[in-house]
Amino acid sequence: MALSLQNPKVSVSVVFVAAMFMNILDTTIVNTAIPAIGRQFDASVSSTGAVASAYLVSLAVVIPASGWLGDRFGTRRIFLVALALFTLASGLCGLASSLGQLIGFRVLQGVGGGMMTPVGMAMLFRVFPQNERVRASRILVLPTALAPALGPVLGGLFVDHLSWHWAFIVNVPIGLAALVFGAMYLPESEKGERGRFDALGFVLAGVGLGSLMYAVSEGPVRGWGTVGIVAPGILGVVLLVALVVHELRTAAPLLHLRLLRDRIFSSSILIMIPATAGFLGFLYAFPLLQQEGLGRSASTSGFLTFPEAIGVMVGSQIISRLYPVVGPRRLMAVGAAVVAALAAFLSTIDGGTPDAVVVVAMFFLGLAMSSVFIPQQSAAFANISARETGQASGLFNALRQTGAAVGVATLATVIAVIGPLESSGGAGAPVPNLTAYHAAFLVSAGLLVVAALMALRIRDSDAASTMGTRDDAGAAAATQPSAPQAPDRPGPASRSGEERA
Q: Is residue 249 part of a domain?
């Protein structure tokens, strides 16, 4: 058993799945626990919203620098530091005795999470050659699918039967176990490109993304027309435009935007943003419909959401076998279209809809979503060299996090604008307005339709190195440890990708 754990593919996969699962789980559990936090600290909705936005802002500030840090100090070292910081901050959040303390510890938690995910992804893609990227994506999809669905279940159980503190404390044993395992078995990391630190790029990216993330996450609560939202929103856009200009001119950019010249990388990102926005936005709105619209408990809502995760896990086994034969283009286009259709169908449910119908629909929604996520993650890095993986992962995750925040904010805004409550027609109290939630589901479906249309622009030939053909397998074999210098040079697949572009 010890020999298998010393296999870099095994050790990196185990630690990364545990860390990413913990990171994503934290967000969904906390969303469930925020009302209880507000009640304990006697805080308004806008005040408790900072518990979520503080994490997102610090995450956005750190992600752009994660690639450079991993290349400069080694991905193994930075990953373990980030994991330790996230675990420590989680424990501190669980011990917080005031709202101010909790928000401060959430900022610290975001710093750890902002480094952990992109650096871990870079480690994963460096130990799996191009023709094994489907296997790596199958690993990536586990925490991505399971955590958002399991979060409401655990969050509901904690809030209903224990306390909101457990929403954070649950991370501590997972983090400690992953930290000990990683210290024992993670391989020493290869160094990537290590130019000088782009301080101006870091300030522009950190403040720009942080301001935009704050505006997007708080806009639905505070109001999009308020100065406190408009000002940081405009500041964020201006600074990000300045960032693009600066990064394209500097010799050692913090974010290698020139990587977007790679056609399959940029095309995958263009699919990822609306797909992530639609999917995670739906997973945000669905529990709201169940709890606020239909009066279900947090636990029941979580159990109705959970079949989506089962669908993704089952689908990942199927899609990983279809990918080399079918290719990413058709899988992503059909998968996104099916998810859109199911989201539209779920926009018709109400209190009279049998739970069995909802469970089946959620299962197949997850099953279809796996045919978007796995090909997209596999194909994106097809022509990215090992030396550029850290930078590409930082850019990829920054844009994915932006897409997730935009999706949640968009659906939250739709619900708020239409109104989650409506008059009962008499002197009685307002009743839930299911139309608001149904409209949010339709917006989610629309975002997935956009992703499906974008997927039609993919060229399967650009992702040939990830599809496991004989020629590509031979090329990948040439880059294995017998020729350690090869991973730092573009291989045949990379050169052919550049020629096609």
A: no
